[in-house]
Amino acid sequence: MAAQPRFRDRALLLAGPALLTIVIFMVLPMAIALVYSFMTASPYGGVEKPYTAGAYVRFVYDRDLDDSLVFDTTYLQIFARSLILAALTSLGCLLIGLPMAWYVATRRPVQRQILVLLVTIPFWTNLLIRTYCWVLLLRDQGLVNNVLLWLGLTKAPITFLYSDGAVLLGLIYSSLPFMVLPIYGALEKMDPRLVEAAYDLYADRWAIMRKLVWPLAKPGVAAGNLLVFVPALGAFLQPDILGGGKKLMIGSLIQQQFTTGRNWAFGAALSMILMAFVLGAMMWSAWRRAAIAVPV
């Protein structure tokens, strides 16, 4: 009986540094943002008293000339665009990442190491530099347009930049490794004899992918979707650079409020709204997985 309190104290002592890190770098900033969201924006940046819910009201209402509240969908449209682009980013990464992860997982050990290294190479370069490289590729005098003109597929440069498509391309490019690696980690443990047995039972490639590979890859797909969707939802670098500041997402809107907009209260309120949505989606996903796991 005396050993249990000692074991509990030792476990708390070992978990202390991790808990302290979570409190300092996650809980405390979230608490500060929550307090800021209920304060009044200072004209020169920062926040001041009195406490008010005006920042949250501004998300769906605007002030008319007579100071009356008018329903405004501007920020809701930005939020909806962010959701759509984040969902399309997850879908695009899944369509590319699942076959890629399957290919890597079915290679020999030495080839696997080389291919995993190639997947992780983009992490060696700053994201800002990699995003600017897409500007050089997609601009009117960029490599893509020059190749299309040289092949005779177009007579004039095509405007790729400053569009939702360019933003989506940048999000997929920067998020793809976060989808490939979790799926590869799930498929790497698969016994290759299962595939041989499936072929012996006259299963074609589509049947193997649908009935064997997909069920085994589901944990990696779930982790990959989480790692891709949440950062893509709050992204601000790709919308600013590839969207030219014209295709705002919720992340770039928050960034603007804390910098050029000097409205820290509204930026904090947007952060809280975004965090509440993400937490709600994660809780719903966990509830769905738990409901499916419960035997009938």
From TrEMBL:
<dbReference type="InterPro" id="IPR000515">
    <property type="entry name" value="MetI-like"/>
</dbReference>
<dbReference type="Pfam" id="PF00528">
    <property type="entry name" value="BPD_transp_1"/>
</dbReference>
<comment type="similarity">
    <text>Belongs to the binding-protein-dependent transport system permease family. CysTW subfamily.</text>
</comment>
<feature type="transmembrane region" description="Helical">
    <location>
        <begin position="114"/>
        <end position="137"/>
    </location>
</feature>
<feature type="transmembrane region" description="Helical">
    <location>
        <begin position="78"/>
        <end position="102"/>
    </location>
</feature>
<feature type="transmembrane region" description="Helical">
    <location>
        <begin position="264"/>
        <end position="287"/>
    </location>
</feature>
<feature type="transmembrane region" description="Helical">
    <location>
        <begin position="12"/>
        <end position="39"/>
    </location>
</feature>
<keyword id="KW-1133">Transmembrane helix</keyword>
<feature type="transmembrane region" description="Helical">
    <location>
        <begin position="222"/>
        <end position="243"/>
    </location>
</feature>
<keyword id="KW-0812">Transmembrane</keyword>
<keyword id="KW-1003">Cell membrane</keyword>
<keyword id="KW-0472">Membrane</keyword>
<keyword id="KW-0813">Transport</keyword>
<protein>
    <submittedName>
        <fullName>ABC transporter permease</fullName>
    </submittedName>
</protein>
<dbReference type="InterPro" id="IPR035906">
    <property type="entry name" value="MetI-like_sf"/>
</dbReference>
<dbReference type="GO" id="GO:0055085">
    <property type="term" value="P:transmembrane transport"/>
</dbReference>
<feature type="domain" description="ABC transmembrane type-1">
    <location>
        <begin position="79"/>
        <end position="283"/>
    </location>
</feature>
<feature type="transmembrane region" description="Helical">
    <location>
        <begin position="167"/>
        <end position="187"/>
    </location>
</feature>
<dbReference type="GO" id="GO:0005886">
    <property type="term" value="C:plasma membrane"/>
</dbReference>
